[in-house]
Write a structure and sequence with these properties.
With 209 residues, the chain is mostly helical. It contains 12 helices and no strands. 61% of the residues lie in helices and 0% in strands. The chain binds iron/sulfur cluster.
Length: 209
């Protein structure tokens, strides 16, 4: 498929391959914090939290009230704090304080769905799976690689059909950065976008079909 090859070449040249996260616990909790909020809010909440904790045991010792206060910038902090406590309890009780490395086990944790599980598997364990976050869900639809009304799971399946093996890491990290920098959720910078020639959204916007 022509579009996917252009996209992969562009992502490799501009962003390269990601570094994997050595701290899988931090990755898991940060991904939970990132649900339904903007990247900068996630970053602030994660920075606050991990300036005072290291692992699940620390979070279990932390009073719920303090945990809520630390993660407040991420929004929905009451619900997230409860979930994080429950996750930590399970990690300590059932996994010796470690993060499990299968999708099935990850998805048994409270508040962990496909997206969070795939992000942890991909960035934490180096499993070549497509992790569909908000950017990966939006950009291939705009370009016209994935059907506009596809569900998150359909986006993952379609992208995994087109992108094999290690190259999947290019999609995960590259589309997140590209989505923050150029193909933003609101007012994408289409005029300066280096791949606008292959993009359906751009063509429709400027009637260049
Ligand atoms: S042309 Fe616009 S919508 Fe298309 S990929 Fe580039 S920034 Fe995104």
């Amino acid at each position: 498929m022509g579009k996917i090859n252009v996209l992969l070449k562009f992502l490799e040249k501009r962003y390269g391959y990601p570094e994997f996260s050595r701290n899988k616990f931090k990755l898991l909790i940060t991904t939970v914090l990132s649900q339904r909020t903007r990247d900068e809010n996630t970053y602030r909440a994660s920075k606050n939290l991990f300036s005072v904790v290291n692992g699940p045991e620390d979070i279990l010792k932390l009073p719920l009230k303090n945990l809520k206060e630390l993660i407040k910038p991420s929004g929905m902090y009451r619900q997230k704090a409860e979930r994080i406590k429950k996750i930590c309890k399970i990690l300590v009780k059932e996994y010796g304080g470690k993060v499990p490395n299968t999708r099935e086990e990850l998805m048994k944790l409270p508040g962990v769905g496909y997206k969070t599980a795939d992000i942890v598997l991909s960035y934490g364990f180096g499993v070549p799976t497509i992790a569909v976050d908000t950017h990966v869900n939006r950009i291939p639809k705009r370009i016209g690689i994935v059907r506009k009304d596809a569900t998150v799971e359909e986006v993952r399946k379609t992208m995994e059909k087109y992108v094999k093996g290690r190259k999947r890491f290019l999609v995960n990290i590259g589309l997140v950065r590209f989505g923050q920098e150029i193909c933003r959720p609101v007012r994408p910078k289409c005029e300066i976008c280096p791949i606008n020639k292959i993009c359906d959204y751009y063509k429709s916007l400027y009637n260049k079909k």
